[in-house]
Amino acid sequence: MKQFLLLSSVLTMLVAVACSTASCPMDTVVTCNYSFYNADGEQSPLYDTLTVTIRKDIQAYVYRKTGKNDTILRQRSTALIDSGYTESVESLSIDTILLNRKVNATSMSIPMSYYRSVDTLVFHYGKILLPDTVWLFHTGYTHVETPECGSYRFHNLSEIRTTDRCIDRATIADPSVNYQGNINLNIYFNTNNE
């Protein structure tokens, strides 16, 4: 029993020393960082409310039966088929809110999708009826600082396209998206919406 306690004490100290010597970064959230400018290139807040959503297409199973509301599921249901529902597979677009009603924004940080090569962001404004769409083209790769720190998903930006309802233009400031916090994209708005 003494040998077991001695061995477990030594192992505990080794693990503690191994974990304490790792130089893992403190802030490891990987986000794409945006900075906002007016059309003249001066950093300026967007004098409006900004909500950003990401549009994703998913495959869904739609079940229909006369006299009943449609049922939409992400997984197939044999129970509904057995109870008389008809099944169809459809592609649906869903929106996920990434930034909700930010006011007087001069910047924002948005996470990127892990395995898609294009993120489709929709910018909704408070005073402007129609939203802008931003297509962000990127490649993702796994980054390992040290084995003790785990892995992270970094990205390289290759292209950005936008609609032009409120956005004048967009440029890539730093194509490397990581946890360093650098500004990656500059968005130039064609109006200050005051």
Brief summary of the model shown:
This protein has 194 residues and is mainly beta. It is built from 2 helices and 11 strands.
Write the layout of secondary structure elements.
Elements: H1 2-21, E1 32-38, E2 46-64, E3 71-73, H2 78-82, E4 86-105, E5 107-110, E6 118-125, E7 132-144, E8 151-162, E9 167-172, E10 176-177, E11 185-189
Parallel strand pairs: 1-11
Antiparallel strand pairs: 1-5, 2-3, 2-4, 2-6, 6-7, 7-8, 8-10, 9-11
Query: Could you describe the largest sheet, including whether it forms a barrel?
Result: 7 strands, antiparallel
Strand content: over 45%
Structural class: mainly beta
Form type: flat
Helix content: 10-25%
Could you give the distance between the termini? 76 Å
Question: Helices and strands, in N-to-C order?
Answer: HEEEHEEEEEEEE
Helix tally equals: 2
Poorly predicted parts: none
Number of strands: 11
* Radius of gyration, whole Å: 24 Å
Mean pLDDT: 86
